[in-house]
Amino acid sequence: MFAxxxxxxxxxxxxxxxxxxxxxxxxSMIFGVLQVVNVGHGAFIMIGAFTTxxxxxxxxxxxxxxxxxxxxxxxxxxxxxxxxxxQRLIKAPELASLLATFSIGxxxxxxxxxxxxxxxxxxxxETGKLDLGVTVLPYSKLIAAGGSALVALLLxxxxxxxRSGTAVRSVIEDSEGARVCxxxxxxxxxxxxxxGIGLTVTSGVFLxxxxxxxxxxxxxxGYTVKAFVIAVLGGLASPYGAFFGGLIFGLMENGSYTILAxxxxxxxxxLTRFFSFVxxxxxxxxxxxxxxxxx
Amino acid sequence: xxDLAPLLRLENVTKRFGxxxxxxxxxxEIHHGELFAIVGPNGxxxxxxxNIISGVFIPxxxxxxxxxxxxxxxPVYKKAPLGIGRTFQIPRPFGxxxxxxxxxxxxxxxxxxxxxxxxxxxxxxxxxxxxxxxxEHRDKPAGGLTxxxxxxxxxxxxxxMKPKLLLMDEAMAGMNxxxxxxxxxxxKRIKEEEGVAIIAMVEHIMRAVVGLAERVMxxxxxxxxxxxxxxxxxxxxxxxxxxLGKAPE
Amino acid sequence: xxARPGKYLALIPVLAAYLGMFVFGRVQPxxxxxxxxxxxxxxxxxxxxLFLGMTGYVDFGYVAFVGVGTYGMALTLSRLSGVEGxxxxxxxxxxxxxxxxSAMLSIAVGAVxxxxxxxxxxxxxxxxxxxxxxxxEGARIWNGSEGIIFSKDLRAIFGxxxxxxxxxxxxxxxxxxxxASAAVVTLIYMRSKIGFALTALREDEDAAKVIGIxxxxxxxxxxxxxxxxxxxxxxxxxxxxxxxxxxxxxFEIHYxxxxxxIVMLGGAGTLLGPVVGGLLYGLSKYWLAIILxxxxxxxxxxxxxVIIVAFPEGTVGYLKKKVRGTALERYIV
Lengths: 295, 249, 333
Description:
Largest sheet of chain C: 2 strands, antiparallel
Order of helices and strands of chain A: HHHHEEHHHHHHH
CATH class of chain C: Mainly Alpha
Number of domains of chain C: 1
Structural class of chain A: mainly alpha
Number of helices of chain A: 11
Low-confidence stretches of chain A: none
Helix content of chain C: over 70%
Number of helices of chain C: 15
Number of strands of chain C: 2
Mean pLDDT of chain C: 93
Strand content of chain A: under 5%
Largest sheet of chain A: 2 strands, antiparallel
Mean pLDDT of chain A: 90
Oligomer: heterotrimer
Distance between the termini of chain C: 22 Å
Strand content of chain C: under 5%
Shape of chain C: globular
CATH architecture of chain C: Orthogonal Bundle
Radius of gyration of chain A: 19 Å
Structural class of chain C: mainly alpha
Distance between the termini of chain A: 42 Å
Shape of chain A: globular
Radius of gyration of chain C: 20 Å
Order of helices and strands of chain C: HHHHHEHHHHHEHHHHH
């Protein structure tokens, strides 16, 4: 009985984990290239959620069609915030970039609140379900998980097979050296920031397929903090590391919840979150390069 | 016993980064009050060697002795008060603090007794402001100074620590010949007045090396090539071959 | 003769500001709530500046120390309310408990997180803050997610009249005193070796080590001091004033961000900055809530961006540059 429940929850965790992973890749990418922690990360996920809702309820389209909208909106926001704010803070102390990205998050949240209101809004995309015996998975979630894995693969190919991806990688290695070799470092920064934001907003499309309570302008905060844990699992600066970190986090979250729920006198939900932060601290201390990178 | 021991002795010091051997079994002795130069092209391992002496890195093999005592594994902040001061390749004064405060910080923390009060340190700082001739910039933040004045601030900060050994990383990089001559004269003067041994790291300004150092060690790909008097080094066939042959000037 | 004449003159403007708040609130009793809010922000900034401003390390979980201090007072009052004739002894024990608990938390966090730098430190401290909150809720210690409501205990210990006076007046006076004390300690640190060591480590930690500064020691000193003031602030501004504590509020990250904004607005690492930042922030928040309710954040956020980009040294940092070499130099620090 317990074993079945655990198996079912772990499968759900793996599916959710792939979305978590994708929702963290943008954060890791931006940190890897610009050394900036995007504290407003969750707000961009929220933008993706509202994009999906608008495409689905106002335009009456399948939520899948929200993906190109989300990517374009995200990259446009990324370029905008990069050129207006972030490029001036590249060499500034952490304090400046942390506060700046937090402020950007607030601007997004408050703008959406003024436009859509602050109450939760739910919408339902009926796709049918896949019954696995131990658990039931709606196809919408499977589509989201598959889409996330596909995005991770596409990012990998972009990094390694294209000119712009190679340029960005060389900037990560050595920005001065890249500059000497004629790479436009500022453009590489801008492109990475925009792509990172684009990925994050797109992940909001996938995440909405998982949220039973609906979406609201302040939904992002929790994801920001989760994304920090996931990013650290993956090494903070590596987007694919983040994807695998997401898988592990999904498994961990659902696994520890299932186990903790059997203990009397504790709140399993809160304790699960507690353990995720313990993991964060332990990894930061003993393996700040993440779980996957040797050295 | 300590009087007889050399000021600094490196014994088969080796440091690797991954597969790269940055410093390869280097042994050398530096004596009290000596002017010594470490010469070698970029990547020869000079900065790594400096970082080992000042304690930023711990070597993988070998030992570092200072006045006869093994300081190989001493944490970096404990090495300075023994009498090891250093400057950086790109000068790194504390930009937000004034020139005077920068030097006072050296006097406060860089001495062994640790009993220099803030007021005393400020007075000591004033002496070194005079020594390096930065009187008119005394109360300005060091971050706004010219590169040469930043370097002088850094040297004064190191001297305020009352070092027995001063490590100077690329002390003359990017200077014109007149500045170099002035710097050489200045280093000779502080050697006499402060009784400090100086190890200057130089990339390829041989003229300055001849004017400055009594002995040189030439490094190549992490290893010691020669360690001899400056004159002999200049005519040493191996040195001419791997180093002088390629460097202009 | 001292090499630094008039080194404590800079206390005059900062203490005058705290005293001014108190006097203004007494003269205009209907404005006391505004004074209480301003005092809270000034004190929060002053306490945080001791660490953030002086070391340059961004503790994104700073509110945890305020929260733990709140718990220190709340636990004391709720546990001691049955003790006959405890009276003001409970208040003293509560303050000591708040200071002690935040100091202990800061030592534990410091031992772990202060090994990290930059963004890694910031993320670790967010983790500590959230982790501590969910530990309280998850393990159901200190009454778990229900929190502690102790208004009854406060009345039982002090009597109705005094309990009301404590919550509506004395709590705010304590906050002013704590803020002023934090300012005094800041200047003492600045004028001592601690301040010089912190300046060095803030500017260039590796260079600081190389000239013989044991940076860990000074980071921990600043961290504990800052945490203790935060704990005392929680014990008074939150515990005594609100008479309840509840985990999501006590560990709400927005307070950390407000503290960062205040320090930044006034000038990180300056003595006078937190007061100037606290007044600017508190007053504009107050007026915006009246003029444009609901739009405060949308107006604030872009202003913060402009300040970060255009005036990263903050108001007092900018003033300091302007008065360099003049007679005012000793007063604006």
